[in-house]
Design a protein that fits this description.
single chain; alpha/beta; Lyase, Ornithine Decarboxylase, Chain A, domain 1; 2 domains; five-stranded antiparallel β-sheet; elongated; binds pyridoxal-5'-phosphate
Length: 368
Amino acid sequence: MTGFREAVIDLDAVTANIRSLRQVIGTPHLVAVVKADGYGHGAVPVARAALAGGADWLGTADIPEALALRAAGIDAPLLCWLHPHGADFAAAIRAGIDLGVSSAAQLDEIADAAGSGVAQVHLKLDTGLSRNGIAEAEWEPVFQRARDLELSGVLRVRGIFSHLSNTSAADDRAALAVFTRGLALARRAGLSPDLVHLAATAAAIDLPETRFNTVRIGIGMYGLSPFDDRSSADLGLRPVMTLRGRIAAVRRVPAGRGVSYSYTYRTTDESTLALVPLGYADGVPRQASGSGQVSIAGNRFRVAGRVAMDQFVVDVGDAEVAVGDDVILFGDPEAGVPSASEWATAAGTINYDIVTRVGARVTRRYSA
Ligand SMILES: *Cc1c(COP(=O)(O)O)cnc(C)c1O
């Protein structure tokens, strides 16, 4: 049966979200971040929809993700920034993919891989997140080395960037001050980056001073809010993914019936149980057992008992529910269905995690 288990991806919403964010943010450049298979939505179709909305760059975490976009025929400017030891820099350079650089060693590896080409790099400064940027103590030697490599025609420093912790406005402003200092040192070393980028969605919306001339937008493009206290609609965004399925079984049971593993839920009255054919293998968080909600024919029902690998049960009471009926786990709350953010709260996580974890067994259906 079609639609047994599917994520419906509204590509028009991707395009509209990018348009709307561009208007708010107003930078000359916007990098649409499509790492992790476009946060679970499908990197290639999302990338195309983002470009249609006016994104002029694409971003992925690693080189294989970027190469997959090139293999699909996408020739837009493309940056990736997380490289394991032994990453195939030569393939990336041949494919015209810009490389984030997080250490002196990486800069030299990229220079060695450039061959007859010119590597385009973006130097990533650690400004507090303590992940993979260039440590402050290394800035001056790396800037100097990068400038030498530029002068010898091996590479070009097209960008300087960093990433914020979203801890608080004060912490992000402190990181901004560190970044600004790094940027000044880079310019003093003779570097002249075309793209300067610090903000992801949250700071791009809330802290205009972090926008420089480029922002990197992930979660907002998918129509989800990075803020606890503001919804998608509050930000003028439309959720892109609707996770849905069809009821696989319905049974009428007496009071006192145990439901799913460990019987953490028991019926209190005679009741109808509906079986939803998505489980934690499909990304439904097991942590939302007993608390996540679904929508069936416009009514909300809570997960009864444990989420299993392939399925979970909802107790619909005396509602009329039949095998094959639509069940929506999350989508656009403006349409009355639960949001990815509600599932995140139920599972003790963030909406990023809810959409990104949707499993390979769930068919992606594109509507545009
Ligand atoms: C994932 C990522 C982003 C996108 O962040 P959002 O909060 O989803 O907008 C931006 N920059 C870097 C370096 C990232 O890793």
